């Protein structure tokens, strides 16, 4: 069974995304701010944090396989939102769109914080002043918001340049850093006060941030050549590439710089490069990190406007978010999303750069885990809704994958911590009255239209 629906749009999409382009989309959207600041977040756990990376990579690979299968079953654009709506109905579709949107604007806040950390390495005055750091984060967010309001073409030009330059400092550290590793930095393996299981779980919750975006190739499925083949392959290849980069870079970071020093760094990979290549190397990596996080921030800003805009066109979000500016861009959606991101940054900046980053990424992860959990078990329902009942080996395959993906999502959710889960749950619940109001408004308009026609007016 394959469900094909033409998504509403104001222009006919251009076909042409092949395997290489889709793989680049997946890798580009995953590898961004996370790996440039996560070594500092993971340092308090010590080398045992690598266990968190391994488990998260395996969980991400399971989710990649699930999304690949779903992309063959539901070919309409939208990714997690489209799959959840097909499986569970309109209300679930709304909740997933709402959670995905929350993940985007909270992610914007986290990327801006990471950007400022490396900017402070290059310009010490910014790193030494909380006021300057906060101002730099807000300027970055609103500068790119204006770029995206001006037009997608301008945003796309920014994205191409930053994506090309993104992987250079990471590859240099991962490969050449092996010669600077001090084995003494790997002892003890668990440098936290938690049990081994608790430490790995907590580390895994942080590392999942770096895999958000693994479903990227499923969202523009209407633009993909042979999506039923290309999307699954691109998603799995992209996750594997990211896993190799993440694990190798983190291992080198923990081996080159002592954990206590790494944990307090606002620019951990720049510090690693400084040990390896001196101040020039540190500056080059910091420049690469600024370029990478700036590009990621641009990409998140683009999505933070497009997701609520698309949902508004489907009448899932308020109509005002579906209006476009004179430049043909969803200005209302962009402004609202990044206003919320700015508020989140201001509220958490007093905790310090790394602490603020940790809290915000956990919130973004929590908002993303609900869509992942729904999608993990969606295929059986989608097929059943289409009149197809799975049996035998095919049912076993789907059931095992779904159980693994769902269990992983719940485990990662627990690892996010009680405070993060509580706040994330509250943010999700705040969407319920909006859904009720939207449905009531739509029914009211329909009834009033019927009354008008029946009265002959």
From TrEMBL:
Keywords: Cell membrane, Membrane, Transmembrane, Transmembrane helix. It is found in: Cell membrane. Coiled coil: none annotated. The keyword Transmembrane applies. It is a multi-pass membrane protein. The chain crosses the membrane at residues 16-38, 50-70, 91-119, 131-149, 161-181, 193-214, 235-260, 272-294, 331-350, 356-382, 394-414, 420-438. It holds the Pfam family AA_permease_2. Its main location: membrane. Belongs to the amino acid-polyamine-organocation (APC) superfamily. Basic amino acid/polyamine antiporter (APA) (TC 2.A.3.2) family. Major component of the acid-resistance (AR) system allowing enteric pathogens to survive the acidic environment in the stomach. Exchanges extracellular arginine for its intracellular decarboxylation product agmatine (Agm) thereby expelling intracellular protons. Probably undergoes several conformational states in order to translocate the substrate across the membrane; keeps the substrate accessible to only 1 side of the membrane at a time by opening and closing 3 membrane-internal gates. This is Arginine/agmatine antiporter. The lineage of its organism: Bacteria, Pseudomonadati, Pseudomonadota, Alphaproteobacteria, Rhodobacterales.
């Amino acid at each position: 069974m394959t469900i094909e629906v033409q998504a509403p749009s104001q222009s006919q999409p251009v076909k042409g995304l092949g395997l290489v382009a889709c793989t680049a989309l997946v890798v580009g959207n995953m590898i961004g701010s996370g790996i440039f600041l996560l070594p500092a977040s993971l340092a308090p756990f010590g080398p045992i944090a690598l266990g968190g990376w391994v488990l998260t990579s395996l969980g991400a690979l399971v989710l990649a396989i699930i999304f690949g299968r779903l992309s063959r079953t539901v070919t309409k654009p939208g990714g997690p939102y489209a799959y959840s709506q097909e499986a569970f109905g309109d209300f679930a579709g709304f909740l997933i769109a709402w959670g995905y949107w929350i993940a985007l604007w909270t992610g914007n806040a986290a990327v801006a914080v990471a950007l400022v950390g490396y900017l402070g390495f290059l310009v010490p005055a910014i790193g030494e002043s909380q006021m300057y750091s906060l101002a730099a984060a807000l300027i970055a967010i609103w500068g790119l918001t204006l770029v995206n309001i001006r037009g997608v073409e301008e945003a796309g030009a920014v994205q191409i340049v930053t994506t090309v330059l993104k992987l250079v400092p990471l590859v240099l550290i991962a490969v050449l850093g092996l010669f600077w590793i001090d084995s003494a930095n790997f002892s003890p393996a668990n440098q936290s006060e938690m049990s081994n299981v608790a430490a790995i779980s907590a580390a895994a919750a942080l590392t999942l941030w770096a895999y958000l975006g693994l479903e990227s190739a499923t969202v523009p499925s209407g633009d993909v050549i042979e999506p039923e083949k290309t999307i699954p392959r691109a998603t799995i290849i992209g996750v594997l590439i990211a896993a190799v980069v993440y694990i190798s870079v983190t291992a080198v970071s923990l081996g080159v710089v002592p954990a206590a020093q790494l944990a307090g760094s606002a620019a951990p990979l720049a510090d690693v490069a400084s040990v390896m290549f001196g101040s020039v190397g540190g500056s080059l990596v910091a420049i690469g990190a600024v370029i990478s996080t700036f590009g990621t921030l641009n990409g998140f800003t683009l999505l933070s406007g497009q997701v609520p805009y698309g949902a508004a066109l489907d009448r899932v979000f308020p109509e005002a978010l579906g209006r476009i500016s004179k430049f043909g861009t969803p200005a209302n959606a962009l402004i609202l999303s990044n206003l919320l991101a700015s508020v989140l940054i201001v509220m958490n900046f007093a905790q310090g750069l790394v602490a603020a980053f940790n809290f915000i990424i956990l919130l973004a992860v929590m908002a993303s885990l609900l869509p992942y959990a729904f999608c993990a078990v969606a295929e059986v329902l989608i097929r059943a809704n289409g009149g197809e009942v799975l049996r035998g080996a095919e049912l076993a395959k789907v059931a095992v994958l779904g159980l693994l993906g769902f269990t992983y999502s719940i485990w990662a959710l627990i690892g996010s911590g009680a405070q993060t889960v509580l706040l994330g749950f509250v943010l999700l619940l705040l969407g319920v009255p909006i859904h009720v109001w939207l449905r009531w408004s739509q029914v009211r308009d329909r009834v009033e239209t019927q009354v008008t026609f029946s009265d002959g007016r």
